[in-house]
Amino acid sequence: MVSEVETHLYTVSELTALIARALTRAFPRIRVEGEITNWRVSPAGHAYFKLKDDQALLSCVLFRSGLARMGFAPVEGMRVVARGAIDVYAPQGAYQLRVEAMEETGLGDAHLAFLRLKAKLEREGLFDPSRKRPIPPLPRCVGVVTSPTGAAIRDILNVLHRRFANVHVILAPVRVQGREAPAEITEAIRRLNRLGTPEVLIVGRGGGSAEDLAAFNDEGVARAIAASAIPVISAVGHEIDFSIADFVADLRAPTPSAAAELVVQEQVALQRQVRELAERLARAARGHLERATLRVDALASSYGLTQPLARIESLRERVRALTGALVRGTRHALTEARGRWRPLEEALRHLDPDRVLSRGYSVVTNEQGTIVREASQVEVGEAIQVRLHRGWLGADVTGAGTP
After folding, report:
1. What would the pLDDT profile of 199-226 be if each residue is shown by its tens digit?
2. What's this model's pTM, rounded to 2 decimal places?
3. In the CATH scheme, what is the code of domain 9-107?
């Protein structure tokens, strides 16, 4: 016999309302123990979070009035007992615990594990500032360990190529969350070290929940960073997020974009620094010569030198000799100083994109101004612009292929 429930045609709203009433009747007042994760307070003052154990997650909402009555400040990783009722949030068709009150029972398992690992590695000296190595000021090759499809790699590439277009990037693609992520990140760091080409590594991902960032709190990942022969910048999550990887790395960046900015200085800034050093050197040399000249003039006009003619002539010869030595010494100092900043100037000249173009290379951009690196980026008939060492050419694609 077919029941009325099976034959009735429900709308989504009707069915959701029935489920909500059933859950409300079944769980009018309940107490649930779990660990707080994904804690977020909206601009309206309502708190949205999840309670978790080792097998499940429960969505929760705590309205502003209830949050104001709390006798403590809930935080990520805290273990609590929440009291409230189950209801259904119809716009998303999801059930949640509408929390009325909470009691703190201690730290959650995940947060305790984080603190234990942090204390263990700190005792071993892995966080010691004396272990931190400086980041090369102008690396020609940067290794990146992150997801190939996430926003982090796009942000890093945009910043690197905007600030210094000639930097070479090697991406070691990995999963950045999930059970397999820690092993993949660990192996990627070791693989780039075996390769040896990168001068600095960026290891990280964009923001997310505590569970999303868990791979960077893994002991294996931390030890791979500590063992890296290449300096490592950790760039995990947002500015407020801290991971074990941040403490072990040679440098912590608040975001992946900030990591890229720390890796390379702007080319214009380097050129300005060279000019400022040259100007300071010239001013110092001029000041040294002026002071020496004043001293020589003072000696030449002194009473003791102007009276005995023979003594005057002798001292004049000495003054001329001292002046010659001073000029030679100053020239030598200028030569040594030029030798110190000339390699910087030569390095900039070697990395200048115009120098590459002068050897017959060109840069092709599509209609959106994006640099074309592969034939698959353009279509036949599409207009392109070719930048040469001097001038540019407009062209249309008549054919495209791959080698």
Report:
1. 999 998 887 777 777 888 899 999 999 9
2. 0.50
3. 2.40.50.140
